[in-house]
Amino acid sequence: MNAPASGHLTGKLVDSAGKAINGASAIILQIHYDSTTKKQKEVLLKGVATKSNGAFEFDELPIGKPLVITFSNTGYKPVRQQVTLTPPNTEKDLGEIKMEQEQEYLSTVVVTASSKALKLDLDKKVFNVDKNLVSSGGTAQDVMKNVPGINVDIDGNVTLRNSTPVLYIDGRPTTLTLDQIPADAIESVEIITNPSAKYDASGGGAGILNVVLKKNRKTGYNGNIRAGIDKRGGINGGGDLNIRQGKFNITSSAMVNQMKARTTGTTVRNNLTTDPLTTISQYSHTRENGTFLFGKLGFDYFLSDKTTLSLSGVRVHGEMKPSEVLDTYTDSLFTNGIVSTYSQRNTSSMREFNGGGLVFGMKQTFKKPGEEWTFDANYFSGKMESSANYATDYYNSAKEIYNTYLQKATGYGNDQNLVLQTDYTRPFGKSVKLETGLRAALRKRENNNQNFTYNPATGQYENVVSASTYYANTDNVYAAYATVSGNIKNFGYKIGLRAESSEYNGELKTTGEKFSNKYPVSLFPSLFLSQKLSDNQELQFSITRRINRPNFFNLIPYTDYSDSLNITRGNPGLKPEFTTSFELSYLKTFNNNHSLLASVYYKNTTDLITRYIDTAYNPVSGKQDLINTFINANSAYTTGLELTSTNTINKWLDMSTNINIYNSKIETGDKTTSQPALWSWFGKYNANVKFLKTFTAQLSATYQSKTNLPVNTNSGMGGPPMMQTMSASQGYISANWGMDLAVKKTFLKNNAASVTLSVSDIFRTRINKQYSESDYFTQQYNRLRDPQMVRLSFNYRFGKMDASLFKRLSKGTGENAGSSY
Q1: How do beta strands 91-99 and 55-62 pair?
Q2: For the segment 431-484, what is each residue's pLDDT rounded down to a tens digit?
Q3: Is the peptide bond before 88 cis (omega within 30 degrees of 0)?
């Protein structure tokens, strides 16, 4: 039996100069003898952070038991001290305990301790962005291309295990897109394949990608500046600055990124129901020039040792000016032979986005270690404007223009989001923890799209009323959750339940027509069981239930006629889809240099939201046309095996490998033809090589085998003609592969600066080839976007660590005050 817990331990943590160290980690460990392994092991009892004066305090400690107290803080060597409290000395003051600063940290800008590019845990994988050279100077889209298990197509669409995941930033859902987040502002990416009841249930069975932004709380100041250019002259630049002094912490980040993308595509469609039968061949050349701006400023105020207030703001701006030339050849098979026609459509368009938001947070810790309460209020709003001009020239057999058809489209969108969330965590005893929380997500959106055709008789553009719409909606989700987790020797468990209710209200402003869906309370249980087989082996089994609600563009009853071969329309009658996921994972480490994570998973989805092809009258062309809309299919399943390994071969070579083998099938019932199941696999390999002391090289390669067309849940309407996948038809994506390479050189004193040269898609092999067929047509199209993109980036880091830095500078004690790092 344990001795009575009534011991009391105090002390003060200082540096070598006798100055108090604030915010250091102090942990009490108790030494136990393990009868199974017949070895001594250390069990965590309590942990605290040192106060502003360096003081720490522990109470209710066991008497007569050997204890170990450890101290750690960034930039300092860890301290470890053994202590035993015996009567009558059950209260002990350790006095001043000194921590020495790391010499390498004092003399260099970059911490030389190397962190692994990929950390494997049973419930998530953590990808260290600092090790990702290829994405330097790019956006979060470039980062995702190198994250194991993540597949990114040429349009930037991200899939995880063949489904679209939910994007989080710093543990919270976000309305930002990947191309609005600078790669250099990201610290790591967490891949959570089977989230527990603690997380928002939205997103179906695809999991969560949590982007963790850099936020440095080291005392003093630090930051970096960066700049780059690509082979087309697109420039990027930015910087970060973090300041910590006393009770204040300030973080800031800014980015400007120019994009000059080029895309070529070919499409061949054979229409099976037209009279006469036709074959349409299209050749497109698209230029996308644009600029993205990103800015973030955050403040933390440490009100006391237990209370922290945070306020941060973000501002984003994007402006794109795409232009496209589309050549279309139509061969009509008449009884007396083939008649060919040719047209060329020139498109010039503009899309502009402006957004901003504020996040307020509060964190309260308590006397009991591990007990805390947090509150967050997150508001974000964005406005989008777009315009496009289409000029289609029709040529006769003599290659002369005999007719020109002019169209114009304008669009406006407004999006407002408010998320309120509070969480409470309380441990019970040494091994049981309760987590509870409430969340409300409120969204309001407006979308106004107008289409016009040119009337030569009046010389004016006339609004096509049936092809225009003004739509507004509100979408609210309310949630509550509770989880209980604990350990019984080597067995761990986590049981959770989440309840969510939602409502959707939409109105077609042009007609006054209203749509409303109120979804009842849905329950989302989760169960996680783990068994530690040995010190380097662990097994976990998990079951979760999640929901995927139809998004704005799935629901909006607006028909987009901008591309006659890819007309799209939403369906306001869609229901949410529910996914139940099972996963069994095994994690093994080998000598701390090698690790292997193997996962077997199965996902079953009911009321799957999928594409559906219908026919309807087209007021623009004046004839019946195919319409791509959405329906709820019967069900779908996905089963697979994922293997991820990390290997540190030696001091100069480390690598990671990911392979995902899966089989998926959609059952549509009598609504349309079901797609046959197909075994597919996806692989990704990353290697980092250090050479010549100051050089690092990274090689990244991906391979995607032939796979079925995925379910398309497009987040936007329109886009390049015929470039949206259509899951309503059967078909497949052909196998493709690609390779990226980057080399980094560090220089200047203490390796403060670096230059990175990267090349993506070295062999021009990332060609997106798709084949689809239905009762109405067969279609084959190929696309290639920005092959062999070369980017050159420069980065310079700076900083000083000293608790009294600004006081010293204000007193003019000399420019050498503080310690550079």
Answers
A1: unpaired
A2: 899 999 999 999 999 999 898 999 999 999 999 887 788 889 899 999 999 999
A3: yes
Place of tokens 């980690």: 25
In the block, which residue shows the tokens 């790092």?
821
Residues in the chain: 821
Q: Rounded distance, CA 778 to CA 283, Å?
A: 17
Rounded Cα–Cα distance for residues 628 and 560 (Å)? 10
Asked if domains 5-101 and 220-801 share a fold, the reply is: no
What's 178-217 look like in SS3? HHHCEHHHEEEEEEECCCCCCCCCECCCCCEEEEEECCCC
Mean model confidence pLDDT for the chain: 83
Q: How many CB atoms lie within 10 A of CB 759?
A: 17
Give Cβ neighbours of residue 468 (< 8 Å, ≥ 6 apart): 449, 450, 451, 510
What letter represents residue 220's amino acid? G
Strand partners, 128: 188
The residue extents of the domains of the chain are 5-101, 220-801
Question: Rounded to whole angstroms, how far apart are CA atoms 582 and 675?
Answer: 23
What single letter denotes the amino acid at residue 363?
K
Residues 6+ apart with CB under 8 A from 712: 610, 611, 724, 725, 726, 727
Q: What are the strands, taking DSSP E only, across 549-674?
A: 559-560, 567-569, 577-590, 594-606, 609-618, 623-632, 635-650, 653-667
Phi, psi of 139 (to 5 degrees): -120, 180
The CATH homologous superfamily for domain 5-101 is Immunoglobulins (2.60.40.10)
Report residue 45: phi and psi, to 5°. Answer: -100, -55
Q: Where are the beta strands (DSSP E) in 456-574?
A: 460-463, 469-488, 491-508, 513-534, 537-548, 559-560, 567-569
The arithmetic mean of pLDDT across residues 751-778, rounded, is: 90
CATH of the domain spanning 220-801: 2.40.170.20
